[in-house]
């Protein structure tokens, strides 16, 4: 059975077992010749990992067919194991009351060492220990052993292989995190990572960093092309890899010299207001392409007006007014000149082209100081009803502009010394830490939000950010739930006092009220959030979050879908997918729920509750082995996690709790 490794008496020969890769048994460092029997090897592996003594009946059912005298064959296998494992003064193959177990205290067992290390936390190991563990994972668990007609054992074996393969991936990810880009260890970890998990965007991001560090630009391009084709074949969203590559290029291309203002002789038509800084953008009038030339048009002007209005309602950026950008558009200036004249950080430009009943819109955002393009996209919509067309195009443009600028500002803040950050930069540095979703990073985020508030007490979103960190601490049980919930509510109140027209302030208040059990009030605040800004994706997601538990599940699905439409690459995408899955569970659509929950669990920053949602949904859908593989991942993050931890965190009705408890009992999460 599983046990910790105790020191053996020097009078006993040292034994070690290697189950990852081909099975090998060593005595005093010498490999012993094992009988060729696959069932003996399977029996040794099963008993070595069994947490309790196993009945002979259970072993016979697992490994033998009834007509073949299973008990006789079991006795033969046990006699062979005794010859291999027993010492004259210490029998290791033990039997009593028709039960069988192995006494492996003092033996070196690779799987026990791996599992003990995972339970203790990989972050507790030094790099040398991590590399040793990685080297021990070379191969599949019980490699070469297969039983085509023993379904229960095959399920057990598949689950264990998935568990150790997943642990191998976690080890490689931890090695990659610890090693500098450009080192041999970093490259090796990245390469093995994508070999084991070819659809893990994090592994591809690190591999691309390693290639780019070595100046292998063409190899990066080839890798992206191959990977995109592979993702498409597997039906996996390639966007996270493309997004990571764009982020890498933007970060490495960021200029080292500070931005300088142009000559003072030509004042801007409109300058930013005095006071704390915000990122600023000028949305230039969209021009329409006609017969090889471009020019202003009513449709282009309508799109421009709509985008400016929607961005202003988000209240996250300083937006240049319509009058200024339309006046300046007639001069046909460069991006850098527009930036200098209007004193803005970013410039958005675009073109419109009509093709029968379809309108194509090309948009790009550039840094005003350098003219570097940070985002470009082509959108299309059917003309149909004029207002519907404007709504579809406006949603796509506004959500992308807000998300890309926030991402650029987060990356810029991350590269600056913490002591040099102003209120705006400290807020965005806080966002970067907040979206890591660990207790340590959450605390760092809170510190940056407090710094932002101290420098600018009028910055509503900094209070909203701090409220979210308290919400996370309560939700994840990183602190006292009652205290953290009250602090989330208090800081959300400050956010509203500073700016009650900011959708983020009502969003933070809605989430805090949910924590306090005030569901109807929470929904009202969240609805106010999206009324103020229909493009505020987090508001729609939060509505889905509340409705999927105690509200209207159909509304939850609609809100989840709309939040993903507005922000398809959102850092909280795992939550948007997870709320849809929980809503589908309430509607009894278990198979569909499992599909969405698995997508949520596959997101790189998915926390343990998301994994638990996926495991329960898979169990409800009858996909037990997949659910158990997820339970193994949960155990590595929190060995004591149980189904009741999920139910205590969310606010389900009694009948839903019973449904989840039934699922938990099928996959070892009961209690």
Write up this protein:
- This protein is of the alpha/beta class and 671 residues long.
- Helices cover 59% and strands 10% of the residues.
- The protein has 28 helices and 14 strands.
- Strands 8, 9, 10, 11, 12, 13 and 14 form a 7-stranded mixed β-sheet that branches.
- TPR repeats lie at residues 503-536.
- GO terms for molecular function: DNA binding.
- Residues 102-249 form the Bacterial transcriptional activator domain.
- This is Adenylate cyclase.
Question: Would you summarize the structure shown here?
Answer:
This protein is 59% helix and 10% strand. It has four domains: 1-148, Winged helix-like DNA-binding domain superfamily/Winged helix DNA-binding domain (Arc Repressor Mutant, subunit A, Orthogonal Bundle), CATH 1.10.10.10; 179-252, no CATH class; 280-414, TolB, N-terminal domain (Rossmann fold), CATH 3.40.50.10070; 455-666, Serine Threonine Protein Phosphatase 5, Tetratricopeptide repeat, CATH 1.25.40. The longest helix has 29 residues, at 386-414.
Which CATH C-level class of the largest domain is it? Mainly Alpha
Number of strands: 14
Q: Average pLDDT across residues?
A: 86
CATH topology of the largest domain: Serine Threonine Protein Phosphatase 5, Tetratricopeptide repeat
- Based on Cα principal axes, name the global outline: elongated
Within CATH, the superfamily of the largest domain carries the name: Tetratricopeptide repeat domain
* Secondary-structure class: alpha/beta
Q: Which consecutive residue ranges, at least 5 long each, have pLDDT under 50?
A: 1-12, 253-275
CATH architecture call of the largest domain? Alpha Horseshoe
Main beta-sheet annotation: 7 strands, mixed
Q: Between the first and last Cα atoms, what is the distance in angstroms?
A: 23 Å
Q: Classify the helix fraction into a percent range.
A: 55-70%
Strand content bin: 5-15%
What is the subunit arrangement here?
single chain
GO molecular function: DNA binding
TPR repeats: 503-536
Keywords: TPR repeat
Region (Disordered): 256-278
């Amino acid at each position: 059975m599983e046990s910790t490794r105790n020191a053996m008496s020097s009078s006993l020969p040292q034994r070690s077992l290697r189950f990852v890769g081909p099975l090998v048994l060593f005595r005093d460092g010498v490999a012993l010749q094992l009988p060729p029997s696959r069932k003996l090897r399977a029996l040794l592996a099963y008993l070595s990992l069994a947490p309790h003594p196993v009945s002979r009946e259970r072993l016979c059912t697992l490994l033998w067919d009834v007509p073949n005298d299973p008990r006789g064959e079991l006795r033969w296998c046990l006699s062979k194991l005794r010859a291999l494992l027993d010492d004259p003064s210490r029998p290791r193959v033990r039997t009593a009351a028709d039960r069988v177990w192995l006494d492996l205290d003092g033996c070196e067992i690779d799987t026990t060492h791996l599992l003990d290390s995972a339970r203790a936390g990989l972050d507790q190991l030094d790099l040398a220990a991590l590399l040793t563990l990685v080297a021990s994972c070379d191969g599949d668990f019980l490699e070469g052993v297969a039983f085509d007609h023993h379904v229960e054992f095959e399920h057990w074996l598949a689950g264990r292989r998935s568990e150790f393969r997943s642990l191998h991936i976690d080890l490689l990810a931890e090695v990659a995190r610890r090693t500098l880009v450009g080192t041999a260890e970093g490259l090796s970890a990245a390469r093995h990572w994508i070999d084991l998990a070819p659809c893990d965007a994090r592994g591809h991001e690190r591999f691309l960093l390693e290639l780019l560090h070595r100046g292998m630009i063409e190899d990066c391009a080839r890798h992206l092309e191959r990977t995109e084709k592979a993702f498409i074949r597997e039906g996996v969203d390639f966007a996270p890899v493309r997004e990571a590559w764009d982020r890498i290029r933007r970060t490495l291309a960021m200029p080292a010299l500070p931005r300088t203002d142009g000559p003072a002789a030509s004042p801007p038509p409109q300058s930013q207001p005095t006071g704390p800084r915000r990122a600023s953008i000028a949305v230039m009038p969209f021009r329409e392409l006609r017969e090889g030339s471009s020019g202003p048009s009513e449709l282009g002007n309508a799109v421009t007006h709509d985008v400016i209005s929607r961005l202003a309602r988000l209240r996250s950026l300083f937006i240049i007014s319509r009058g200024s950008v339309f006046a300046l558009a007639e001069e046909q200036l460069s991006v850098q000149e527009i930036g200098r004249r209007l004193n803005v950080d970013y410039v958005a430009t675009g073109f419109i082209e009509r093709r029968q009943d379809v309108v194509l819109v090309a948009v790009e955002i550039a840094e005003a100081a350098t003219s570097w393009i940070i985002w470009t996209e082509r959108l299309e919509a059917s003309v149909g009803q004029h207002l519907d067309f404007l709504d579809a195009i406006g949603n796509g443009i506004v959500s992308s502009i807000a998300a890309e600028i926030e991402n650029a500002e987060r990356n810029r803040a991350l590269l600056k010394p913490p002591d040099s950050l102003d209120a705006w930069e400290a807020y965005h540095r806080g966002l970067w830490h907040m979206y890591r979703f660990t207790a340590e990073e959450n605390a760092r985020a809170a510190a940056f939000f407090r710094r932002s508030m101290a420098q600018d007490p009028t910055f509503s979103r900094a209070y909203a950010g701090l409220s979210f960190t308290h919400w996370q601490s309560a939700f994840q049980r990183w602190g006292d739930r009652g205290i953290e919930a009250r602090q989330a509510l208090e800081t959300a109140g400050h956010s509203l006092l500073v700016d009650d027209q900011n959708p983020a302030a009502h969003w933070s208040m809605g989430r805090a009220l949910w924590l306090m059990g005030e569901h109807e009030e929470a929904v009202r605040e969240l609805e106010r959030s999206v009324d103020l800004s229909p493009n505020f994706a987090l508001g729609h997601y939060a509505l889905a979050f509340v409705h999927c538990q105690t509200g209207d599940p159909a509304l939850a699905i609609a809100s989840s879908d709309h939040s993903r439409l507005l922000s398809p690459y959102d850092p909280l995408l795992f939550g948007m997918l997870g709320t849809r899955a929980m809503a589908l569970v309430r509607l009894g659509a278990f198979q569909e729920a499992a599909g969405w929950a698995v997508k949520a669990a596959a997101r790189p920053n998915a926390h343990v509750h998301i994994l638990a949602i996926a495991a329960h949904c898979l169990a409800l859908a009858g996909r037990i082995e997949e659910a158990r593989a997820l339970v193994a991942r949960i155990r590595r993050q929190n060995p004591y996690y149980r189904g009741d931890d999920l139910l205590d965190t969310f606010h389900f009705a009694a009948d839903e709790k019973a449904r989840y408890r039934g699922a938990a009992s099928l996959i070892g999460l009961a209690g």
